[in-house]
Design goal:
307 residues, alpha/beta, Rossmann fold, Isopropylmalate Dehydrogenase, elongated
Length: 307
């Protein structure tokens, strides 16, 4: 049965309401998403920032702040450090960007004293529910890592597998993408894709199936796989994870899906951190922000199982 974002929300409710810590919370779009997440029973929120501005923004959107904890800190950088510390100390299950620039937000994530470092590589995962495709698609990395090395790609896969499991995909099929589905020494991406598949076969990458290199059509379209005679491949149009060779390919596919597919739904988180980090863009829709909170909530529960 196809997993949907409704299923993800239902799963959150099974494991109990989570808490999200919001950095510089005086942002109307973020407060609207936080309010909806609370209404749906996905998450409570601790709002960190300038309390007067938070209350003014909340009033402008008709948001009742009764029941929300507010931590007053008018300085944006200090607010981000106080907000991330809540997640670092276990008072919050996830950490969300508010009205603060991405650079300073990420500095708080990486802070050596109160941040969310785990010693590994950070990467971004976008989860899509696409009309006409019978499963969720996990796109990585489309927003954070620019030109991942072979070693980086191993970390990206390891970061993504728990996200898949949290969404009900126990053994995800990972497709390292390229323009072609055969190894070409003049195309290093194809060589690395084959190496990732070999590493999985030899047990160096676990918890998933890796088959590459794969073209995008062969990875997601069973008819295309059949037409190309790919009956010997471990992935035949049924990939769960699309692993992109660089940020340009990933970001363009991400934006094409968001802006060109009617009815598509998605949510995004930063992984490889102590708790999931919600790093949405100001251009992301209200629904995407709410979906991202729900996604972070189920991943937070999955990460607790691994401790």
């Amino acid at each position: 049965m196809k997993q949907t974002f409704e299923d993800i929300v239902a799963e959150v409710k099974k494991c109990g309401k989570k808490t999200v810590s919001v950095s510089v919370a005086q942002d109307s779009a973020v407060l609207e998403a936080v309010q909806e997440a609370k209404r749906q029973g996905i998450a409570d929120a601790i709002l960190v920032g300038d309390e007067e501005k938070i209350r003014a923004v909340a009033a402008s959107i008709g948001m009742d702040l009764d029941g929300y904890e507010i931590v007053h800190e008018p300085d944006d950088v200090q607010a981000s450090l106080k907000a991330v510390k809540l997640a670092h100390d276990g008072r919050a299950d996830m950490y969300m960007k508010g009205l603060i620039d991405t650079k300073n937000f990420l500095k708080s994530v990486l802070d050596k004293e109160v941040g969310l470092r785990t010693g590994g590589v950070l990467s971004h995962v976008a989860v899509f529910e696409v009309p006409g495709i019978d499963r969720l698609l996990f796109l990585t990395d489309v927003a954070f890592m620019t030109y991942p090395t072979l070693e980086d790609k191993v970390h990206i896969i390891n970061n993504t597998v728990p996200v898949c499991k949290a969404c009900g995909v126990d053994v995800p099929k990972v497709a390292p993408l390229a323009a072609v589905e055969v190894v070409n020494p003049k195309m290093p991406v194809t060589v690395e894709a084959a190496e990732l598949a070999k590493m999985c076969e030899e047990g160096q990458i676990t918890g998933c199936v890796v088959d590459g290199p794969l073209s995008l059509d062969l990875a997601i379209d069973p008819e295309a796989a059949k037409h190309k005679g790919a009956t010997d491949r471990k992935i035949q149009g049924d990939a769960d994870v699309l692993l992109f060779p660089d940020i340009h390919a990933g970001n363009q596919v991400y934006k094409a899906m968001v802006h060109m597919i009617p009815g598509v739904k998605n949510g995004c988180i930063l992984t490889g951190t102590k708790v999931p980090v919600i790093l949405t863009s100001r251009s992301d829709t209200f629904a995407t922000k709410v979906n991202s909170i729900a996604l972070a909530a189920v991943v937070a529960e999955e990460l607790k199982k691994g401790k």
